[in-house]
């Protein structure tokens, strides 16, 4: 029996804290508008996972992200031949510094966890709620768990 070797599709996601809840993005998808974290792929140009999440938050919200902790590492359910390994971070942002966002982004929204759960049918992925459950449970890991390339 032959087994295909999995080559991870590594993604990063941000749980962005603010006075009005958490900052989410509404993005275009083939299934219509979806709610998601500011999130995306680790790119070859990124020096680290932290660089990747800061870049994604900048591109999708126009705000600079200050990661404070690693929330968790999540393995997404296979979808066809794709499977994602998601590194989720908790942190804060400053004010919006640019208007032009990633073309896939429709809007950014501050929503409480309860408000987001009330819109569960609009979520991009089940990974959003998995991370939200850990966030609400107070799960936080130090960023020192991550070791960038020397």
Strands, helices and their partners?
Blueprint: E1 9-18, E2 21-27, E3 34-36, E4 38-41, H1 49-61, E5 65-75, E6 84-93, E7 105-111, H2 113-117, H3 126-136
Describe what this molecule looks like in 3D.
This protein is of the alpha+beta class and 150 residues long. The chain has one domain (9-140): Alpha-Beta Complex (Nucleoside Triphosphate Pyrophosphohydrolase), CATH 3.90.79.10. Helix content is 19%, strand content 35%. Strands 1, 2, 3, 4, 5, 6 and 7 form a seven-stranded mixed sheet that branches. Strand 1 and strand 2 (21-27) form a beta hairpin. The longest helix has 13 residues, at 49-61. The protein is globular, with a radius of gyration of 15 Å.
CATH class bucket: Alpha Beta
Beta-strand residue percentage? 25-35%
* Distance, first to last CA: 39 Å
Are there runs of 5+ residues with pLDDT below 50, and where? none
Q: Would you tell me which CATH topology applies?
A: Nucleoside Triphosphate Pyrophosphohydrolase
Count of folded domains = 1
User: What CATH architecture would you give?
Assistant: Alpha-Beta Complex
**So, the CATH homologous superfamily?**
Nucleoside Triphosphate Pyrophosphohydrolase
Q: Secondary-structure element order, as H and E?
A: EEEEHEEEHH
Number of strand segments: 7
> How many DSSP H or I helices?
3
Q: Which secondary-structure class do the elements indicate?
A: alpha+beta
Subunit arrangement of the protein: single chain
Percent range for helical residues? 10-25%
**What radius of gyration results from the CA coordinates?**
15 Å
> How much is the average pLDDT?
93
